[in-house]
Amino acid sequence: MVHGAVTAFAAALVAAFLSCSSAMFIVPLDKQYVPVMMNGRKVADKTAYHGQVFIGHPNPQNFTVVFDTGSGHFFIPGSSCKDPPCKLHNQYHRSRSTSAIDINHDGSRIKGKYHDRDQMSIAYGTGEVVGEFVQETLCLGAAWGDEDAERPENCARVRVITAREMSTEPFSTFKFDGVLGLGLGGLALDPEFHVFNMITKNRALPPVFSVFLSHYDEVKSEIAFGGLDEKRMDGPVTWVPLTMPEQGYWRIAIQSVRVGNQTIDFCEDGTCNAILDTGTSLLGVPKASVQDLLWLTAREVSGDEDVDCRTVEGPPLIFELGGNFTVQLNYEDYSRPGAAELVNNITNETHNICRASMLPVDMPTLGVKVFLWGEPLLRKYYTAYDTENLRIGFAPVKQEIPASVLAAREAAAQAAAEAAADAALPECRKARREPPTRFACTPHRRVARGCDAAATREGTARDASTGRLGTNGTAWENPDVTLLGAMGFDSKAETPLPDMTTYGRTPALRWLREARPLPRLAVATDNAATRRPRQKVQLLLDFASTFTACVLLLAVAKWWLASGAR
């Protein structure tokens, strides 16, 4: 127990040191999408994250590269390459660099004619590169600016492969120029080909790099060299030891795999393992188990071809790594964006199915029970790679949500709330578009919320928040509502309104004068500012009535006198 506590305390100290390393530098990563089409529909995107490097000193040449934990060498297109993919990218010009040395694979200088020099062929998935060797000054993320300054922490002398040949696939599809391998030393011909080893050699830079992949295009992804970027972590880091590190892969053991509550028999014996690969955009699955995992994570979508499958609920995919630590991918993490059309051979019916982004892995040199953890997992976890202690760290990632996404979410939530509220209202309040051609009201009762049964039957309602009257589902501003409040009527009481269909505006004043005031006045109108106008209006109405009566009386008297005189 004491030993375990001491170990945990030491691990916490190491993590704190790595996250506070002053020598750490960060390289921002750009993201490129390449659509994957099936039957004329986009079902997924291949993605690539690439950052800048600079080769040569004092006149650096700029390139973009993928930082790939699944390979061990660094290559860029050379100026001698005539293949079409090379022409699409920046090419390295040996003649422009005064810091370059032409070498063979063992590091020996080239002597005699250059056509006798060593060459090397490297396979990258479906692609292949053939190149030559040069020793150069490499800087990650930023160029070595000052000729006279000491070489900065992000620069080192390394062995570079300059490509003479590049296959069309995949290099003509992507924007990045080359690949910088960050696998372990076992994948490299020589330690001097291993860029990160050369960067940390005889330096104060800790031998750890870490990867953050952003969910949002507005926020840059990044790779940190020399430690962990604490602002990208949403919790403590858990370190998992590597298995078979001599092979050069960032490989860890998997004890079991579950889809929801169902354990996969294929990994039940505890012999499965996973390789973390920053160079793949999918989740690689052993070929023998890919069908089981695809069907267990599949969800049918009824009738909607354009649905985003990342919003369709499904079971979690859970990997148990030992020590009570699990790695979990939810449906939004592993799903392809678009649904796939599948035809039932028996009924000939077409079904839209949401599927996981899974790639069958069939590489006997890696083993038959190997998962490749690519972008789906690397977006879910902040991962750190310790070349000295041969371990991988996992921490919950802290995603930075851009303002545009927050605004869109708020607008969507507001629209959904309004739609839900509208759906819950009676029909008499749902459509509020154009006002009627004439002012008309039918008798109804004023209610605080919604429409009561009487108002619904008569097709008229008043909105509680705006004091608007509505007839047959249409609402408009009642010009007499303000006057009603000014005369002392409670706008929140259940008050019968007159039928004004045949009266129009002027007779409404007569009704207001003759109506009986309510005993309870509205709080909003029961104050000195509104009582004085009410008194004035009342006096004016009384004066008008008296004056009218007098005029009528005088007219009658004049007529009677005139009649009597005749």
Query: pLDDT below 50 for ≥5 consecutive residues: which ranges?
Result: 1-17, 432-527
Backbone structural class: alpha+beta
Q: What is the makeup of the main sheet? A: 6 strands, mixed, barrel
> Numbering strands along the chain, what is their spatial order in the largest sheet?
2-3-9-4-8-7
How many strands appear in the DSSP assignment?
Answer: 29
Please state the CA-atom Rg, rounded to the nearest Å.
Answer: 39 Å
The DSSP helix count reads 12
Mean pLDDT value: 79
Distance between the termini: 130 Å
Q: Estimate the global geometry from the Cα principal axes.
A: elongated
Q: Topology, pairings included?
A:
Elements: H1 2-19, E1 25-38, E2 41-55, E3 61-68, E4 74-77, H2 84-87, E5 101-103, E6 120-124, E7 127-140, E8 155-166, H3 168-171, E9 178-181, H4 195-200, E10 208-212, E11 221-225, E12 238-241, E13 251-254, E14 256-259, E15 262-263, E16 272-276, E17 283-286, H5 290-297, E18 299-301, E19 317-322, E20 325-329, H6 331-334, E21 340-343, E22 350-354, E23 358-361, E24 370-373, H7 375-380, E25 381-386, E26 391-396, H8 403-424, H9 453-458, E27 460-463, E28 468-471, E29 474-477, H10 481-486, H11 506-514, H12 528-565
